[in-house]
């Protein structure tokens, strides 16, 4: 009852208690290593040595690349509670009401610290496009002041689909500990992501199948690979083959999915151009062995 009461109070302030990650994220080895190296900085030992507390990370990249899943996993990696800040729910009609709501929410997060404060699709909340009242700019100022002055151990995770829409002062170097670009997964990462999602349905397929599909899904995002795995599992179930997915199932479902990077190639390329001034979340693509011919492993 106490937990439910506190949860309702937080919800009224625009803060949701984030659910722990139910699945790991595939790939993104550079981001994973960076987080693990900083996991001890929230310990009592680190505080006794006056080591600086991490401020947070900006995760930007095309939609569907797993930024939200990563945000939830960050709480698991750092072993901290996850709070999600919903700025849209804090907007009020009275002058100064929105900014006051944001300040109260930030103070609440500071009182709960150490914790993760996740702001999802932050560009929608902070973009000044169409805002003639200046509310977005004042909310931005409140968040920037909080990030620069808070020493309680609030680790801010801001996720963003379009970094070009963010104010310059929010994404400049030094505002966060690091700005990471989460790009479309590499071939190796696509293997890992497919494996993770197929295992959610109790499905195991040969590594050769994963490699063959990964080689054929060059522009697929993590979300589109999740859809592919779900559709293949459903297809096998409909054909009275529960948990028995064949390579042909995966190929048929893959052909029915048109990735966003193909549908809106210009928008994805615009986002990828920002990666030149950000840190990559994944290691550079390595020259891999030639993809296995799918016909060799096809079963009906």
TrEMBL record:
UniProt xrefs under InterPro entries: AAA+_ATPase, AAA_domain_protein, AAA_lid_3, ATPase_AAA_core, P-loop_NTPase
Annotated keywords: ATP-binding, Nucleotide-binding, Plasmid
The keyword Cell membrane is annotated on this UniProt entry: no
Domain AAA+ ATPase: 53-186
Family that this chain belongs to: Belongs to the AAA ATPase family. Highly divergent.
Designated name of the protein: Uncharacterized AAA domain-containing protein ycf46
Protein's organism: Nostoc cf. commune SO-36
